[in-house]
């Protein structure tokens, strides 16, 4: 039952917002009593914390699946962006923006987890791109990974509209890729940008 509550709560939080969804809403959606929810979660903050932790794991499992498909480094980044776009397409307000505004302590925990994982992910992508001659060999991998996640997190935590955040994140991805790309990399980037479903 606990897993079912987390699953339904996560769905509602992403669709309607962390602030607006109440324990009553979750109970009503699941046709259970609020007492049943409180048996597992003594307050909404704990439910949000556990929901974001599960979501974090699911997102990174999906990223690992994309990486395992062995796309080239640039295509890999566009596939990961597409996965995020599909996952958060029903959301009006950026989830990270909501957390920062209404649940700062949970947001700090999420940010700490995400920065560590993103740093690892971005470094691996840059190393792969260098190996594939899509990114320049003289790059400072640590600095470029840091530039990119700083840019991405700044967009998601300061942009209320999820659609606007996605548009800016695409601009950031293009900016990041152009800054690192070889001529072969630029050609691959242009190819990815031609996708009609990109926005």
Automatic annotation (TrEMBL):
Give the DNA-binding residues. 22-41
Q: Which GO terms describe its molecular function?
A: DNA binding
Instruction: Give the record's keywords alphabetically.
Output: DNA-binding
Does the record carry DNA-binding as a key word? Answer: yes
Secretion signal span: none
- Identify the InterPro entries for this entry: Homeodomain-like_sf (IPR009057), HTH-type_Tx_Regulator (IPR050624), HTH_TetR (IPR001647)
User: Is DNA-binding set as a keyword in this record?
Assistant: yes
Pfam family membership, one: TetR_N
Query: What residues does the HTH tetR-type domain cover?
Result: 1-59
Which PANTHER family is this protein grouped with? ACREF/ENVCD OPERON REPRESSOR-RELATED, ACREF_ENVCD OPERON REPRESSOR-RELATED
Kindly provide the name given to this protein in its UniProt entry.
Answer: TetR/AcrR family transcriptional regulator
Species for this entry: Flavobacterium laiguense
């Amino acid at each position: 039952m606990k897993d079912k509550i987390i699953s339904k709560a996560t769905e509602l939080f992403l669709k309607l917002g962390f602030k607006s969804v109440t324990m009553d809403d979750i109970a009503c959606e699941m046709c259970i009593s609020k007492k049943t929810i409180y048996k597992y979660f003594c307050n909404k903050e704990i439910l949000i914390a556990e929901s974001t932790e599960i979501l974090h794991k699911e997102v990174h499992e999906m990223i690992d699946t994309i990486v395992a498909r062995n796309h080239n480094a640039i295509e890999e980044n566009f596939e990961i962006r597409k996965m995020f776009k599909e996952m958060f397409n029903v959301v009006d307000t950026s989830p990270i923006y909501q957390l920062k505004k209404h649940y700062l302590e949970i947001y700090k925990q999420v940010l700490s987890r995400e920065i560590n994982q993103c740093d690892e992910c971005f470094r691996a992508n840059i190393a792969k791109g260098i190996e594939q001659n899509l990114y320049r060999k003289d790059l400072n991998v640590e600095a470029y990974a840091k530039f990119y996640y700083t840019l991405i997190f700044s967009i998601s935590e300061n942009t209320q509209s999820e659609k606007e955040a996605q548009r800016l994140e695409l601009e950031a991805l293009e900016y990041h890729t152009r800054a690192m790309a070889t001529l072969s990399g630029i050609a691959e980037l242009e190819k990815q940008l031609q996708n009609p479903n990109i926005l």
